[in-house]
Structures are given as structure tokens and as C-alpha cells.
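can u do me a favor
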């Protein structure tokens, strides 16, 4: 078989050459200088180690000089060099995109049922964004609070439609993703939740659950979800003694907190 025909059959492999991207060149040229300058700023603590590690690992991701495997394709009988990736979760666009595609394929192929879904997006006021960015446990509780509110709303609508809750009651399901960035790469914690647009019921513990779709929510429905969520949030913050913190932006002595607070407010955090 002709070489290029064979290659077309197997798809071939092309290295992605991260070193040619603007982001890579920018970091390569300025990262160490930037970190040194931050560390030398009086009165502030340094950036945490995990942030520096992520940034430095990005500069090694996909670069052959930092390690690779040689793979052989029996189809086109060619060898390719595949550079190691950094597998970081926070910064590297390539590793982030790979993880995103793998997660999406897993959800579609193995997790989500064949049923209608609705995307719910939740955003927060500035002081809350700051608290949620730093407190993973609190963020988890806020997420739970939101999903419970939406599930209660779905059950209410199901009752309004005259559906029979049967023995199981009305059950729904959701996948929630915490997104940390807004469109301008500003720090903006918000949720994207894929929620079943309906409810499951089952007649008894061993019966196959039955899905019932619901009509789209009205404007009043969405307003009710919002006001219920606010009420639940308020009592959550009250219980944790954080009501005051939730209403004011705290002082930031660490570089990370300072940069985060600036990013939330759309201000420049470092430099002249
Ligand atoms: Zn091949
Ligand atoms: Zn990477």
C-alpha cells in the first residue's frame, strides 16, 4: 500500500507543538521574572506552591525534551514520538480540554439517561464568589443547597401537573459543574447544572422507575427557585456563622487572595 494512503487510513499523529502558542511563549519569557517580583514585594506572602507548580508544569507539558514515548503504528508502519503531558487540573489548556472531552464522553455514554435535560446556571454576588473560591466544603454545601431547591421545584411542578408520586415520591437527578472563570478569565465561581427536566417515580422498591417530562418552567417558576435558594443560602450562612463574611469582601494578605479579589472585581492585581 502507498505510504500516504496507509496514513490516511490510520489518521496519522501530529504533535500539537505547544511551544508555538502565544500562552506558552508568554509564560516561558515572563513566568520566573513575575514570580521573583511577587516574592520581593514587601508586606505580602508568596504565591502558594501549588500555583507555581501548575504554571511550571505547563511549560513542560507536551515538550519532547521533558520525556516522551515512542509509539509504532502497525497500519502505516511509522514511529511517532508522543510527549508526556502535565495532567494538571488548573491551568494547562491541553490537559483541561482532554479531561473535558473524556468526562463529556463518559457522561453521554455511561451516565445520563435518555431523557430531556435543562441547563441551570447560577451566579453569585462578589463577596460570595470570593468565599466560594476559597472554601471547597462551603462550595459543596452551596451546590447541594441549589440542587435541593431545583428538585423541590420539580416535585412541586409534578404535583401541579397532577402526577402521582407513587411509593418512591418524585425523584430527579443532576450533574453539576463548578466553573471558576467568567468570559474574561476573571475569577467568577458559578455553577452549570444539567438537571433532568422531569421526575422519576416508581410504584414500589423493585419496580422500574417511570420518567415523566414536565413542561418548561415559567418566569414565575424561575423567580420562585431563586427566592427559595436565597432563603436556603441565608440559613446555611447563618448556621455557619458566616453571614457577615458573605456580605463584605475580606482583607487579603496573601498574594493569591489579593489576586483573586482583584480578578473578581475586574481590577489589575499586580504590577505598576
Ligand atoms: Zn499510522
Ligand atoms: Zn498539560
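np, heres the sequence
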Amino acid at each position: 500500500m502507498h505510504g500516504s494512503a496507509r496514513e490516511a487510513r490510520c489518521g496519522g499523529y501530529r504533535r500539537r507543538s505547544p511551544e508555538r502558542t502565544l500562552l506558552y511563549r508568554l509564560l516561558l519569557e515572563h513566568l520566573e521574572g513575575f514570580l521573583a517580583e511577587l516574592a520581593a514585594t514587601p508586606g505580602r506572602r508568596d504565591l502558594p506552591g501549588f500555583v507555581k507548580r501548575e504554571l511550571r508544569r505547563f511549560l513542560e507539558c507536551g515538550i519532547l525534551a521533558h520525556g516522551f514515548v515512542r509509539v509504532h503504528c502497525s497500519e502505516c508502519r511509522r514511529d511517532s514520538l508522543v510527549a508526556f503531558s502535565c495532567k494538571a487540573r488548573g491551568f494547562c489548556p491541553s490537559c483541561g480540554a482532554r479531561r473535558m472531552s473524556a468526562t463529556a464522553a463518559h457522561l453521554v455514554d455511561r451516565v445520563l439517561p435518555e431523557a430531556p435535560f435543562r441547563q441551570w446556571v447560577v451566579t453569585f454576588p462578589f463577596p460570595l464568589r470570593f468565599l466560594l473560591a476559597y472554601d471547597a466544603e462551603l462550595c459543596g454545601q452551596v451546590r447541594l443547597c441549589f440542587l435541593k431547591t431545583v428538585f423541590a421545584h420539580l416535585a412541586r411542578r409534578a404535583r401541579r401537573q397532577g402526577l402521582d408520586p407513587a411509593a418512591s415520591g418524585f425523584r430527579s437527578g443532576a450533574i453539576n459543574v463548578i466553573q471558576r472563570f467568567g468570559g474574561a478569565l476573571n475569577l467568577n465561581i458559578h455553577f452549570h447544572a444539567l438537571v433532568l427536566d422531569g421526575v422519576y417515580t416508581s410504584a414500589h422498591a423493585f419496580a422500574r422507575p417511570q420518567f415523566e417530562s414536565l413542561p418548561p418552567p415559567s418566569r414565575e417558576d424561575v423567580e420562585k427557585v431563586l427566592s427559595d435558594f436565597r432563603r436556603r443560602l441565608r440559613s446555611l450562612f447563618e448556621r455557619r456563622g458566616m453571614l457577615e463574611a458573605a456580605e463584605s469582601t475580606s482583607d487579603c494578605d496573601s498574594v493569591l487572595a489579593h489576586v483573586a479579589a482583584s480578578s473578581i472585581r475586574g481590577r489589575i492585581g499586580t504590577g505598576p
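DSSP finds nine helices and seven strands in the chain. hope that helps!!
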